[in-house]
Amino acid sequence: MVTLGVPSLAAHWLRAIPTFKETQLRTSFVAADIASHPLEIIAEALEEIALLAEQAHPAAREALAAALPTLTDPARDELVVALRAEAQEKGHFALARMLRRRTGLRDGAHEVPDPSQRHPGEARVGRALTLGERKALARARDRDVLDRLLRDPHPHVIRNILENPRITEDDVVRLAARRPTFPDVQAEIAKSARWGIRQRVRLAIVQNPFTPPAISVPLLSLLVRPELEQVIAATDVPPILRSAAIELVERRPPIDPTDAPETKQ
């Protein structure tokens, strides 16, 4: 039920998003709204959605899940920076918590591998594969080839693999949990319409200390209490992530029958 005072865009999302069964339609719907509304309206809507999501409001969680592929996309960094500034200026505290950032290049995340380590695997013929060849093979049905390409460090290859129907949730969980990994690989998983909605995948992204907090912190709002407690107990996650998880646990209702781990998707 939409409460009084919810801005019209937030109310629109809360009402409309649950009617879409396809995840891609939900994310495209929200992305189009974000692209067509002024920053002030977007920030107000996200503030209301974030506030309700902190209280484990089911429709708000669905709306936030539809918005996060846009908010965690490195290509939308300019938008996120503007939203963060708007949240600070207008006192949108829930939005500021979700988009929090500390001073420093890595925000406390572990150092990623050197970009020079982005080397392709070798083909069976013994020569190095080009990026184009690897992207094409990522669409193939050969399981042995896919197993090798799951270790590929290039985000374009990973994007094609995530769309391959032969890839399983277990594959994606292992991919999201791999250490070390590259931020843009984690971003591809987080914004995947097929896999970013999976609870096990989200938790693997969040718990990977190499995931940038710009991706992992917003995802916290979609975790249930036992998962947040796992993040808090982890010894290797960035401090900014742990503190955000502690705040979310403190803001959750004392008794919440919906706040239980998901058993299936």
Can you describe this structure?
α9 runs parallel beside α11 (183-190) and α12 crosses α13. The chain has 2 domains: 1-99, no CATH class; 121-235. It is 57% helix and 0% strand. It is built from 15 helices and no strands. 39% of the residues are buried. The protein is mostly helical and 265 residues long. It is globular, with a radius of gyration of 19 Å. It has helices spanning 8-16, 23-36, 39-54, 58-71, 77-90, 93-98, 131-137, 143-149, 155-162, 169-177, 183-190, 199-207, 213-219, 225-233, 239-251.
Brief characterization of the structure:
By secondary structure, this protein is mainly alpha-helical. The chain contains 15 helices and no strands. It has helices spanning 8-16, 23-36, 39-54, 58-71, 77-90, 93-98, 131-137, 143-149, 155-162, 169-177, 183-190, 199-207, 213-219, 225-233, 239-251.
